[in-house]
Structures are given as structure tokens and as C-alpha cells.
């Protein structure tokens, strides 16, 4: 049996109280919402905080509401709540779909959308028991000095494996981050960095409180997920694509994001040179899919063959773009 390390559990009722506790305990504390990622990692001794600051009792960090053309979601809203929200289903159904594909129903009932955004990166050599990791000599992400994926010690390449960020990125969403004495807003596309050890720009003592999604009636978004089984598993690849429908039946600003391959979600570049506007015919879709294939090179940070995962990139991108075109029709 894997046991939790000892810790003190705090239950603030407001963001201000949570921030005060975080300031008091500093590096010895961590925020916890659903705990579906943090608690197993604590059992594996990947994290051993002395204080856990619960966010599930803070009502202002929950709920979904539409106001002034912006859909706002509390970071402590459960993934089930996001998936079942009538506002989310109406205005950003791809986000509801992404939330619905996270793990299983028990995890979604506890896990939160903010937690999904802040999900720790994962790797075959990292997400193991302390005994397993010690026998290997640990790794660059935790207690060691070598990355067993790249065989060198310069950079951790643990994979970003969250479902909702790609959708939020193509929808131009932003997050509200509360820091000591100040609040800042960050576009989700700028939230992540290519560092498997710490891949998110939320500093110690800061708290991601809300997600804001601007709603545009002409925008269509599609989400797809590749995994070993059709339930529970983390993604081997996720794809989110979005585009704006033009009055003449064409499309503009086609964009895409993939994740599950590297330490951060990857925006697919060069698509504007392939499609400057107009219809998304089969030739254009194929060209966009091949451009995605050229950019994506998975590593052995999953147990599944990286060459197969790379081969599936154009397949899933092509399927997503085809679904997008059909959804508008």
C-alpha cells in the first residue's frame, strides 16, 4: 500500500484567506482542488508538502456564467460541471467534449478545470513509486541528473497530458492568476513553457482562479483525443482545431494545437501560408495535416511507440478538420 506523507489540511473559504495561508507557509504548501493528480503524486513521493490548502470550499472559484460576450468558468469548477453546463455546451461544445474525455466519471466529479490546466507533466520514468525510481537512479525531473528519455541531463521532456488546454488555446481563452497583492491575466497560449520539470507560468504562491473565453458566433472548434482505451487513459495525442466561418461559405483564421507529445501544448504553425481564406477543401485539409506531421516528433516519454504516435498526428488532424467543416454545414 502506498501511504501519504504527513501534512496539515487547511480549508479557507475565500481566495484572500487561501493566499494568506500560501504566503505564511511558502514552499512548504501547495494548493489542492480535486486532488486527482496531486494526491497520487504525493503517494509516489514526487511531492511532499507539509501543508495542503484546499480550494473546494471557495465558492467564488466555482460556477459558469456568460456575461458581455465572455464565458467565465471558475477554476475550482469540476470537470463534470464543465461538461454538463448548458452554457458550455451551447457556446463552446468542444470544451464540454474535452472535459467529458478526462479519465472516468469519478475523477471528473472531483477533478477541476483549473487542475487540468495546471496538470503536472508525465513520463514513463517519472510517474512511478519511489522504490522504482530509486532503482533506476531517479531522473532529471525528480532527484536525479539524467533524463532517461534523451539519455542526457540538460532538459526534462516529460509530456503535457491535459485535455482542455488545446481547446482553450484555439478559442483565445485567458486565465486570471491571483498573486500576492496583484492579479494578472494571461492568454492560455502563453501559459506554458517547454520545460518538463515546471511547464506553467504560475509561480509559487500564485493561484489560478478563473478562465475566460471570448465567444464569437462565427467560430467553430473541434476536439479529438487518441488513447489506448476509450476511457480513463491519459491522451497519447490530443488535437484541437478552430476556424471562423465567413459569410460566403469560406473559412478564415484556421488554427490548431496538439498536445501529449512534448512538455507543452504545441501550436501548429505555417497554416496561414497554406490556407489564406476560402473553402477548406480536401487538398487544403491534406496540406494542413501534412504540415502538422512535419512539426511533431514525439519522444519515448510514453510507453506507446513514438513513431506510431507521430504517424497518427496527420490522421487525427485530418479527422478534426473534416469534422469542423461538417459541423458548420
What does this structure look like?
There is one protein chain. The chain is of the alpha+beta class. It has a domain at 218-329: 2-Layer Sandwich (Enolase-like, domain 1). It contains 12 helices and 12 strands. The N and C termini lie far apart (53 Å).
Compact description:
The chain is an alpha+beta fold and 329 residues long. The protein contains 12 helices and 12 strands. The longest helix has 23 residues, at 306-328.
CATH H-level superfamily of the domain at 218-329: CO dehydrogenase flavoprotein, C-terminal domain
What is the general shape?
globular
Order of helices and strands: EHEHEEEHHHHHHHEEEEEEEHHH
Number of strands: 12
Percent of residues in helical segments? Answer: 25-40%
CATH class of the domain at 218-329: Alpha Beta
Mean pLDDT: 95
Radius of gyration: 20 Å
CATH topology of the domain at 218-329: the name is Enolase-like, domain 1
Structural class: alpha+beta
Separation of termini?
53 Å
Q: So how many helices?
A: 12
Describe the largest sheet.
5 strands, antiparallel
β-strand amount:
15-25%
- Uncertain segments: none
CATH architecture of the domain at 218-329: 2-Layer Sandwich
Strand order of the largest sheet: 4-5-8-6-7
Which descriptors would you attach to this protein?
329 residues, alpha+beta, Enolase-like, domain 1, four-stranded antiparallel sheet, 12 helices, 31% helix
What secondary-structure arrangement, pairings included, does this model have?
Layout: E1 8-10, H1 15-25, E2 29-32, H2 38-43, E3 51-54, E4 64-67, E5 70-74, H3 79-84, H4 86-91, H5 93-100, H6 105-110, H7 113-117, H8 130-136, H9 165-170, E6 174-179, E7 182-187, E8 207-214, E9 219-226, E10 237-245, E11 251-259, E12 266-267, H10 271-274, H11 282-295, H12 306-328
Parallel strand pairs: 1-3, 2-3
Antiparallel strand pairs: 4-5, 5-8, 6-7, 6-8, 9-10, 10-11, 11-12
Helix pairs in contact: 11-12
